[in-house]
Amino acid sequence: MMPRVSFRTVLFVGALLGFAVVLAVGGRAQTAPSPAERVAALKQSLAQSQKQIRQYEWVETTIISLKGEEKARTQKRVFYGADGKLQKTPIEPAAAKAESAGRGRGGRGGGVAQRVVENKKDDMKDYMEQAGALIHKYLPPDPEDIQKAKDRAKVEMTAPGQARVTFTDYLQPGDHLVVDVDAATNKLKGLSVATYLDKKEDTVTLAVKLGALTDGTTYTAETTLDAKAKNIRVVTQNTGYKPFGK
């Protein structure tokens, strides 16, 4: 299971932190929205955005690298099914099919070397599943966790018209959840997580880049998960957005 940041995650954080960004711009808002008003606006934003993204399908490319060398690459067609759940259908390149057929006819050719390679892949998969499970504790951010961390939040202007909200000690001591927002529009520009597994030396980071479709729909363009202790990187790219079924 390779971690992927959902569209719902992106919009959730953007809507939740929008008011904080308005305050960061210089306190121009005269009346702060009440919690009830903020929740209502959040629900409306999520409903509209989810409706828009469900009209699309796209291609998800996942690239796994070890010590800077690509070890695996997969592609999947992604869309929302009739049940409202995200569906992913593997796209198998012709070259991969030919290679798979060749191995089926190859008899003893693979031998010990092939088993060693497969064992390494299994170790990578197990570790990345553990790292992915940790990241999913952060994304999508839980409202209760945001509330607990709000007093430790730092809001700063990182560039003209752009604000950054940093939550420290968000879920465990020494971790960070960072959100970049367009201060003028309150649209999310990106987010990142810096955390660790069992030990602080076993760091895991996640960076998210966003994009926008022609109708203004925001989507997750690329996520990069780094597990530095194992020299493993997983990059997930989402491209080829088009109306579903066309």
Descriptors for this entry?
alpha+beta; about 250 residues
Short account of what is shown:
The protein has helices at residues 7-24, 35-53, 94-105, 111-138, 143-149, and strands at 56-66, 69-80, 86-91, 153-159, 162-168, 176-182, 188-196, 203-212, 218-227, 232-243. It is α+β, with helices and mostly antiparallel strands and 246 residues long.
Distance between the termini: 28 Å
- Structure summary, number of beta strands: 10
Largest sheet geometry: 10 strands, antiparallel
Continuous helix count: 5
Average pLDDT number: 73
Name the poorly predicted regions: 10-30, 32-43
Helix/strand-derived category reads alpha+beta
Q: Give the ordered list of helices and strands.
A: HHEEEHHHEEEEEEE
Give helix % range.
25-40%
Radius of gyration: 21 Å
Beta-strand share of residues = 35-45%
Count of folded domains: 1
How are the strands of the biggest sheet laid out side by side? Answer: 3-2-1-10-9-8-7-6-5-4
Principal-axis shape: globular
Structure overview:
By secondary structure, this protein is an alpha+beta fold. Helix content is about 35%, strand content about 35%. It has helices at about 5-25, 35-55, 95-105, 110-140, 145-150; strands at about 55-65, 70-80, 85-90, 155-160, 160-170, 175-180, 190-195, 205-210, 220-225, 230-245. It has a 10-stranded antiparallel sheet with strand order 3-2-1-10-9-8-7-6-5-4. The longest helix is centred in the middle third of the chain and has 28 residues, at about 110-140.
